[in-house]
Amino acid sequence: MNQKELKELIEFLIEKDIAEFELERGDVKVRIKRTADARAAAPAEARYVHVAPPPSVPPLEYSSAPPVSSPAPAKPAAEEPGLHEVKSPIVGTFYESPSPGAPAFVKAGDVVQVGQVLCIIEAMKLMNEIEADAGGEIVKRLVNNAQPVEYGQVLFLIRPQS
Q: What is the arithmetic mean of pLDDT over 122-140?
């Protein structure tokens, strides 16, 4: 597909007020998607605006004072040494039970085995069961139900079985 054909296609889509279009021809794939704002204010021709470079910034002055460092992200303090941390393998939303109103998979004080489901993390409408990677007693759940979680965030503390 050459530039002329592409331009004609775009003009046709604007004329017919088509918001989204996809075309696949051999190894060429074209996808055009317009927002409501673009449809309301579709310009007849493209205009180029020259943007001047930002003014030069004066050099920073350095002092001999030590640099101020930002505090490290808060990490839950293990209540006792030797606790195993179960961390989130993905970014998503934490759920303690398989469905609203159902009992939680685990609670503090429960003894779990390796492979036992501890919670669900929803990511992109997919429910991912998070399993215990160590057996032992659940000491603490560090996340609230329906709370967003980050990759590597500690979800549970487990006291390993002796």
A: 93
Integer-rounded Cα radius of gyration of the chain: 27
Alpha-carbon distances of 126 from 7, 65, 83, 116, 136, rounded to whole Å: 39, 50, 30, 19, 28
Task: Give the contacts of 71 (CB within 8 A, at least 6 positions apart).
Answer: none
Span 74-80, mean pLDDT?
Answer: 53
Residue 83 has pLDDT above 90, yes or no: yes
- Burial of 35 by CB count in 10 Å (0-12 exposed, 13-18 middle, 19+ buried)? exposed
Amino acid at site 133: D
Q: Tell me the backbone φ, ψ of residue 155, rounded to 5 degrees.
A: -100, -45
State what percent of residues in the chain have pLDDT above 70.
Answer: 71
Q: H helices of 21-160, where?
A: 36-40
Please give the Cα distance from 46 to 117 (Å, whole number): 56
Q: Comparing 37 with 141, which gets the higher pLDDT?
A: 141
Q: Report the distance separating Cα 121 and Cα 125, nearest Å.
A: 10
Element counts in the chain: helices (H) and strands (E):
2, 10
